[in-house]
Design brief:
This protein is mostly helical and about 180 residues long. The chain has helices spanning about 1-30, 40-70, 80-100, 115-145, 150-180, and strands at about 100-105, 110.
Length: about 180
């Protein structure tokens, strides 16, 4: 029970840091700001990997039960398995995201070309964030017994989706800028 509560707190911190990181990164790609916040990025990274570790630990009993019984109940637990699938996809995409924009040569950072593959990868990461975030918020509210979980889920989902749409527009503008 303590791990679930800790994971919920960590997830909320991630949401706040992610929104800040996404907005600052998007504004930088749009050319509105020129500074980077490595501290924010590394703090977000630490919380993401902590969340992943706790989520793996919390998923072990379900995986063991599935192995033991041979019944995985994918349809009945679609949200649970969708969270795990998008979590794994995000882990892969986040690792690629870390290495996406810059390359280090003799201690200096240089901006790499932002091609079509990187553009698609960024859009996929944003989609995974929206799906994972929406499912996570929904299940968190249901577990807390919130009667108005649908309305709150819609509000949180709209907020995350709006930020990710802003990021997608800025990423698209950035990609077009590189393509021209």
């Amino acid at each position: 029970m303590i791990l679930r509560k800790l994971n919920t707190i960590v997830a909320r911190i991630i949401i706040l840091l992610l929104i800040l990181h996404a907005i600052l990164g998007s504004l930088m790609m749009a050319g509105v700001i020129t500074f980077t916040s490595k501290g924010l990025s590394h703090t977000l990274e630490a919380f993401v990997w902590l969340h992943a570790l706790i989520s793996i630990i919390l998923s072990i009993p379900s995986v063991r039960a599935g192995i033991k019984s041979g019944k995985w109940y994918f349809r009945e637990n679609a949200a649970f398995w969708s969270m795990r699938i998008t979590g794994i996809a995000m882990a892969i995409l986040i690792i690629l995201h870390f290495r996406m924009f810059t390359v280090r040569v003799n201690g200096y950072l240089f901006l790499e070309e932002f091609g079509f593959f990187k553009y698609i990868m960024m859009l996929l990461l944003m989609m995974c964030i929206v799906i994972h975030g929406t499912l996570g918020i929904r299940s968190s509210l249901i577990k807390k017994g919130k009667a108005e979980y649908r309305e709150k889920t819609e509000l949180y989902s709209l907020s995350i989706s709006t930020v990710m749409l802003f990021c997608a527009v800025c990423t698209t503008l950035y990609f077009i800028g590189w393509a021209l």
